[in-house]
Amino acid sequence: MTIPGVKQRAAEVLVAEIGVDMSVFATPKHLASWAKVCPGNDESAGKRRSGKTGKGNKWLRATLTESANAATPNSYLAAQYQRPRGRRGHSKAVTAVGHSILTAAWHMLQTGELYNDLGADYFIRQNPDRITKRLVRQLQALGHTVTLEPREVAA
Predict the structure, then answer these.
(1) 98 with 104: CB under 8 angstroms?
(2) Predicted confidence (pLDDT) at residue 51 exceeds the cutoff of 70
(3) How far is CA 33 from CA 30, 79, 131, in A?
(4) In a domain, 144, yes or no
């Protein structure tokens, strides 16, 4: 229940559907594939076809979807939802967050450790220069002149 969006009922469903013995699944990718929440990759002769996730356990999928929708706004999962939502749409972004919740659950059940949230600003901290350049380009496209000055850090 330390994963954002996962409360008691969702945790009960996760444990009931996937069990507590993670030795059945060699990696979290195997679990995601079994649950059918991993992205499909149907390609042959250089031609990409449908990448649908497929039909898996409907109770597990519904729980992951509800948990992904309920992820708190100030969490890594909410930031992860925002990244593909603009390009790919709500349902694909929710499926991606559900995949992350399932992966986190596998790691928690495998190692016994609690969930450690990386924070809502995780992706900004990863590459702040790229974010800065993108925002400057957007402001310049709107007709603004942008001058950047480094912020003074208080000692």
Answers:
(1) no
(2) no
(3) 5, 24, 33
(4) no
- Find the Cα–Cα–Cα–Cα dihedral 38, 40, 46, 48, rounded to 10°: -130
Taking CA atoms, 103 is separated from 82, 95, 121, 138, 144, in Å, by 19, 12, 20, 35, 43
Cβ burial of 78 (10 Å; 0-12, 13-18, 19+) is middle
Its domain, for residue 72, covers 8-123
pTM of the model: 0.79
Element (H, E) at 43: strand 43-44
The verdict on residue 111 lying in a domain is yes
Between residues 20 and 56, which one has the greater pLDDT?
Answer: 20
- Roughly how many angstroms between the first and final C-alpha of the chain, as a whole number? 39
Tell me the chain's radius of gyration from C-alpha atoms: 19
